[in-house]
Amino acid sequence: MFAAKEPGSSPVAVIEKSGSIPASEDEHDVDYDEVYSYAEQRKIIHRIDRRVVSMLALLYIISLMDRMNLSMAAIAGLNKELKLQVGTRYSVTILVFFVAYTVFQPLGTVLTRKLGPRWFLSSIVLAWGVVMIGNGFVHSWQELAGLRVVIGAFEAGYFPGAVYLLSTWYARYDTQKRYTAFFGIGCVAAAFSGILAYGLSKMDGLAGLGGWRWIFVVEGCISCAVALFSYVFLVGFPEDAQKAWNFLNEKERDFVIRRVNRDRGDAVTEPFSLGAFLASAKDLKIWVFAFLFFCVTMVGYSINYFLPIILLGMGFNVAQAQCLLAPPWVFTGIFMSVQAWISDRYRLRAPIIAVNAVLALIGLAFMGFHSNNSVRYFGVFLVIAGASGNTPPVLTYQANNIRGHWKRAFCSATLVGAGGVGGIAGALVFRSQDQPKYLPGIYAAIAANLCILLCTAGLTMWFWYCNRRARKGMIVIEGLQSFLYTY
User: Structure pTM?
Assistant: First the structure.
């Protein structure tokens, strides 16, 4: 049921003959390679970090900035001018973005592989940047909602493509630090877009445009400029590393491929087969991972989209509400970095996810039920750290426990697709009529974190049971003799 196979199953990929190193080694304690010393290996890996992780994080900043600017514009005059607070208009405008985002998710990883990350990811960033500029010239909430659908369709390809690309470059116990850097840098930097939005809103009246319109126009132009930059510096998969300008030579590329093969034996791309791609759907754990991510994103997206409005309800003014978004994200960035080091160093996944869920539960209790607004704002720190901070651990948990390029692609699509559904749910559970405390949304977020705890406990018990049988030679996990689940 969970893809543990009986002895005699043929492995998905053949480990190189030099791969006598156990699959559990990581960059902290490995000193092996027939070509490079340990110090030289670290230099290569850090060069990959600077080029791959930093470029993907930069594009993710743009993605989040263009996603979150709706809430910034809402309190800067958009709600008033387009009457978004009437009925469920604001929620619908958020919801239609995620409908398109979810529908087009499955294409993300496939097109990233078929067209190449540099051309595909850079092109969709450029496309949604152009549409974002158009958001600044709408005259009705229906026009705005229509453009958000188009942005959702273009943004759908980025996150699954980026997650998939990252997973192909690193061994299993290097991944959470990289996912955290990619996600954390993006989120912390995007949180400061509230300050940028406040400054742009002060352009109110310039060239006859309202301040909220300038938020969309200027941030759309920034997206286009970064997309053009990424055409030059974004890199593809390890086997294509030589094609990237001023990156890895042939020997260094081969080292990266050897390193991944030693860990999980799937560095070399498998030929595309629709049957192989869809066969992964039979593995139940993939859907449990997807449900975990749904729960995480439902809480994360709902808080991000409604937090500026919630802060207004706490008594803060517009300027304070836009600027007070940054401190919780700075705290979350530091928290995630420490957590990632612990997680990779001690090879822990499930306990980290559980701790974050408990932290989010405490924060939600403060936000929803405490009478003091300062305490409620402190709860925001805990909720963002526990909910949005759980994204890298869940991504890593999934990536560590699967093998094969097309299974990895299918998992990225289902995981991030479930995240899109979480965004839809987040738009529905926090409703304008529930302000200022939004208690139905708080209850839904509490339920989501309880589900995270239950699913994580169930997976941990199953993985422990499978590993125990694999060590006794009773089964082969994921088609590879030395492979063990991480929990």
Answer: 0.77
pLDDT digits (tens, 9 = 90+) for 99-141: 898 888 878 878 888 888 989 999 999 999 999 999 999 999 9
Q: How far apart are CA 340 and CA 183, in angstroms?
A: 12
The dihedrals phi and psi of 5, each to the nearest 5 degrees, come to: -110, 155
What value, to the nearest 5°, has the Cα angle with vertex 421 and ends 189 and 76?
45
394-420 confidence digits (pLDDT tens): 988 998 898 877 787 788 778 878 988
CATH number where 426 lies:
1.20.1250.20
Domain that holds residue 470: 51-237+282-477
SS3 readout for 336-403:
HHHHHHHHHHHCCCHHHHHHHHHHHHHHHHHHHHCCCHHHHHHHHHHHHHHHHHHHHHHHHHHHHCCC
Q: Cβ(71)–Cβ(305) under 8 Å? A: yes
The Cα angle at residue 379 between residues 378 and 382, in degrees rounded to 5: 100
**355-339-350-184 Cα dihedral, nearest 10 degrees:** 100
Alpha-helical (H) ranges within 49-174 are: 54-73, 79-82, 89-103, 105-115, 117-135, 141-155, 158-169
Give domain status of residue 275, yes or no: no
Residue 193 in tokens: 């877009």
Tokens at 335, concatenated = 């928290």
Q: What is the mean pLDDT of residues 193-220?
A: 91
CA distances from 150 to 67, 83, 93, 155 (A): 12, 21, 12, 9
Amino acid making up residue 356? N
477 φ, ψ (degrees, to nearest 5): -90, 130
Domain for residue 429, yes or no?
yes
3-state DSSP assignment of residue 19: coil
Q: What would the two tokens of residue 255 be?
A: 């080292």
Backbone angles phi, psi at 27, to 5 degrees: -70, -10
pLDDT at 221 over 50: yes
CA distance 211 to 172: 46
Whole-Å CA distances, 479 to 13, 248, 404, 414, 466: 8, 31, 10, 21, 13
Is residue 373 pLDDT above 60, yes or no? Answer: yes
Q: How confident is the model at residue 28 (pLDDT cuts 50, 70, 90)?
A: very low
| Number of domains within the chain | 1
Continuous segment of H or E residues that includes residue 4: strand 4-5
The verdict on residue 270 lying in a domain is: no
Confirm whether 469 is domain-assigned: yes
Asked whether the beta carbons of 336 and 392 are under 8 A apart, the reply is yes
